[in-house]
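## tool: complex_structure
## caller: assistant
## args:
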Amino acid sequence: MALLQINDPGAAPTPIGIDLGTTNSLVAYVTTLGRPTAIFDCDGEALVPSVVHYPEAGDIVVGRDAQALAIAHPRDTLVSVKRFMGRGAGDPETRRLGPYRFATDEGPVVRFAVAGGRVVTPVEASAEILRTLKENAEDELGKVGGAVITVPAYFDDAQRQATKDAARLAGLEVLRLLNEPTAAALAYGLDSQKNGTFVVYDLGGGTFDVTVLVLDDGVFQVRATGGDTQLGGDDVDRAIAETLLAAMGEDPKGELAPSLVRAALDAARAAKHALTDTDETVARVAAPGRAVHEQTLTRSALDALVTPVVERTAPTCRRALRDSGIALDAIDGVILVGGSTRMPLVRRFVAEMFGKTPLDSIDPDQVVALGAAVQADLLAGAGPRKDVLLLDVLPLSLGIETMGGVVERILPRNTAIPAGAKQTFTTYADQQTGFELHVV
Amino acid sequence: MENPFDTLGLPLRFDLDPQDIERRYRDLQRAVHPDRHTTAAPATRRAALSGAVSVSEAYRTLRDEVLRAEALLRALGRPVDLETAKPEPELLMEMMELRESLHEARVAGDARRVDGLRSRVVAERDTTLAELTQKFVAGDLDRATALVSRLRYYRRFLDEVAGFEDEDTHLGPR
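## result:
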């Protein structure tokens, strides 16, 4: 239980760090003694499941209470909404196994049709989660100041903008968006005070990021970053759920009752978690209106489903290493971030790939929010600390679209930021009076 | 316009120690980075931002051997004009042959051959780099310019090989 914080109404608002995760979200701050600390809700929990439930009437429900309503109301309870942020309605990612009802099949934005005749976008749903986190923070700290919100390093501009929009809707002032692996490195670096070259391997619910960093006397310099915004623990859940559904005589690719889909996904996730510590578990699918289905799941069966996921991370890791110009044997340590790195197979894979036992002394579920809190404190706190500086990079190249759809790449990926570039273009037609700048 | 060597406070020479470049870059950012000036007046913050951008650009240029060589030539009054620079015919022949071999090796799925081609170009690149350093020291800027052109071709080839190796999946860690 956190110590009582005596709130001085005249005191400056406290800046906060927020990890808006695919599966769980968290808010943290830096205490007056300089310690990054997670904020707990009135049930003593720091993690807020990133689940939003829209009832027929009444208040929107966020978190564990929303999770409890997911099976009974599968279409009105949005889970892992982060994977829909910044994506169009026709994006194949939005069509993967899930119980939702979409208001439209096209358009630049996904729209969920939920109870009460409401149509909700991922930005609006994320804003609800952020609002809850803000309220939890205000309960603890009184006035809340600017927020640093983390995003996967590999999020593109649309996804980042969507995150900022959600924050604005929730009434938060965004100090900066911070890349999740950098945030984790910040938390570890401050904790250990050790110089060196580190890799952050961040496998969450829906995204994978890998970042190579140099830590040198308080300067955290990102050398390269890579990732996949469609890869994570949710893919493992889906694979397990498909196995369960098939065993139940259902066609996983066919038309399925939404509550059955949600029940299968929930059972899959619970089994996956259980298999972290045992070799065998019973998955239990409890869908309304049908007999409970129980099925034994072994660790080796799980490993077979997880293997393709981790194998997909290998080329990304190699590319990031190459882009950084740092050799594999020059890496001093590997930091694990994200709940999915709890899986024994993932740990073995990372240890083998980098030839080092991964570091996980800071809770992989909290480390990102703690790092964000440190950055928020640096940017808006009592004044910049002389000893800490974050130097990040562009995760994806930036360019301008020219006539004919050709992209002129101006700033390559992994360019150190702040960065600028100058390039000369000519108009396409005579007497042209204007142009559209399409940054890609 | 200040050249990147001056921006980072490094001597006007080609064979810079990469560690020196890194250290100077970080030291400068410690001073100018906008995050260091969050409580300052807007004009100061703007100056900090533009300073940090210059430092980042200088760093990017000097860290990359090809860009560093080009910047050095420019600083020494011999800017490279990419439009008119004509590559040596022998180089073009060599690159064409290499590309054909690479394509064949790829189509045949011959990873070892691809690796062999890469090693060969890496060796050529390293030899060229050594010669380039010498030419800069000797002040032979004509030869230096030609060698930089070679480096650019080798770089493009190696980037392509790297791209292929990324796409070909390997089972488990390498």
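## assistant note: Chain A is about 30% helix and 25% strand. Residues 397-440 of chain A form one domain. Handing back to user.
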